[in-house]
Specification:
Layout: H1 2-22, E1 25-26, E2 29-30, E3 39-40, E4 54-57, E5 60-61, E6 68-74, E7 80-82, E8 87-90, E9 96-105, E10 113-122, E11 126-137, E12 140-149, E13 155-165, E14 170-180, E15 187-194, E16 198-210, E17 215-222, E18 227-229
Antiparallel strand pairs: 1-2, 3-5, 4-8, 6-9, 7-8, 9-10, 11-12, 12-15, 13-14, 13-16, 16-17, 16-18
């Protein structure tokens, strides 16, 4: 009976040693990872919008967790921060393009580090600009604007142009409603109409809706001066 117990004991010990070696252990310690194995996963950062909440999580590949993240060079937008968990979050105060380098450190012995230089663009979610400034041509006022969608969402866009006379009377000289796909830049929208004799200030308004997120963005342009239509009644 004792011989049988000893045989079972040797068999169990042999199995444990086989498993120990199979999973990469030697002399009671784990095999150290390759010094070059830790890396920051590639991929571009989505655009941020001024004064809108933003969150992006950096991820490491290989190495031994837990990981610690830090900013080693460059500047992130004011109003945002990089957490030790690799989350870039906050609300940027101003537009711009920002370049910075992040570093991740793992808990292997000795610790490994990896770095990656990244670019973050902070752009208005809805950008409205003059393409052709409003001007008088005979008895008409004509112009052209361009709109950009700086978000990751498609817009339901409404575009309205009013010419407001000195007596407060407003005449519509442009109107459109259409989907504006995410990432669209400098999409041109012309406008124009004949008007009675008089002076007019042109107001251009755009409203962009994202119904599924219950979000609305607005942008406005206005002529700096009153445009005089001198032809016509």
């Amino acid at each position: 009976m004792k011989a049988f117990s000893r045989a079972r004991g040797w068999a169990a010990t042999s199995m444990l040693l086989a498993l120990w070696n199979t999973y990469g252990f030697a002399q009671g310690t784990a095999q150290a990872p390759s010094p070059s194995s830790l890396a920051v996963e590639a991929g571009s950062l989505p655009n941020a919008a001024p004064r809108h909440p933003y969150r992006f999580e950096f991820h490491a590949r290989n190495g031994i967790p837990p990981f610690k993240w830090s900013l080693v060079s460059g500047d992130i937008p004011a109003g945002m921060k990089l957490g030790g968990d690799g989350a870039l979050s906050g609300a940027a105060i101003a537009s711009g393009t920002f370049h910075f380098t992040v570093q991740v450190t793992d808990t292997s012995q000795p610790p490994q580090t990896a770095r990656r230089e990244v670019e973050l663009k902070v752009v208005p979610p809805l950008l409205l600009e003059w393409k052709d400034y409003a001007k008088v041509s005979g008895n008409r006022i004509d112009g052209k604007v361009q709109v950009s969608n700086g978000t990751e969402d498609d817009f339901d866009l409404t575009f309205v142009v009013l010419a407001v006379a000195e007596d407060g009377r407003a005449t519509a000289i442009g109107y459109q409603r259409f989907p504006l796909r995410h990432g669209t830049t400098s999409f041109e929208i012309p406008f124009g109409e004949t008007l009675p004799h008089g002076g007019y200030v042109v107001h251009v308004d755009t409203v962009a809706e994202v119904p599924e997120k219950d979000q609305i963005y607005r942008a406005r342009l206005q002529t700096k001066e009153r445009l005089q239509v001198v032809v016509g009644p």
